[in-house]
Amino acid sequence: MEQSKFVDHPDPNVVLRGGPLDGRRTRVHNWSTAFLESDGRMYAYRPLGELDTEYPTLNVYVFDDGAQADA
Fold first, then answer.
1. What angle do CA 44, 52, 54 make, to 5 degrees?
2. Are 23 and 16 in contact (CB under 8 A)?
3. What does residue 39 show for φ and ψ, rounded to 5 degrees?
4. Does residue 71 register a pLDDT over 50?
5. What is d(CA 46, CA 62) in angstroms, rounded to the nearest whole number?
6. What ranges does the record give for the region Disordered, renumbered to this chain (predicted)?
7. pLDDT of residue 23
8. Is the dihedral of CA 11, 20, 2, 54 positive or negative?
């Protein structure tokens, strides 16, 4: 699996839940939907507004299969 350069960031502030990037940690710079590329496809994750149970210092972003990136 080719991973996005944004996934498994060395200083993450969010963890991704659901979808193909579940459990990956990344860093976002604003609290809006994040569009991440992996395997040549774009995936959308939106902020849930909660801290994670496995990584209690990270905010949760959940998979959003209905979101579209601006073309």
1. 115
2. yes
3. 55, 30
4. no
5. 5
6. 1-20
7. 95
8. positive
The answer to whether residues 60 and 51 touch, using CB atoms and an 8 Å cutoff, is yes
- The tokens describing 20, both together, are 């193909």
Q: Are 24 and 9 in contact (CB under 8 A)?
A: no
Q: pTM score, two decimals?
A: 0.82
* Biggest CA-to-CA distance, the chain: 35
Q: Which residue has the tokens 């994670």?
A: 52
Residue pair 4/51 in contact (Cβ under 8 Å)? The answer is no
8: left (phi over 0), alpha (psi -120 to 50) or beta: left
pLDDT in tens, 17-69: 999 999 999 999 999 999 998 888 999 999 999 999 999 999 999 999 887 66
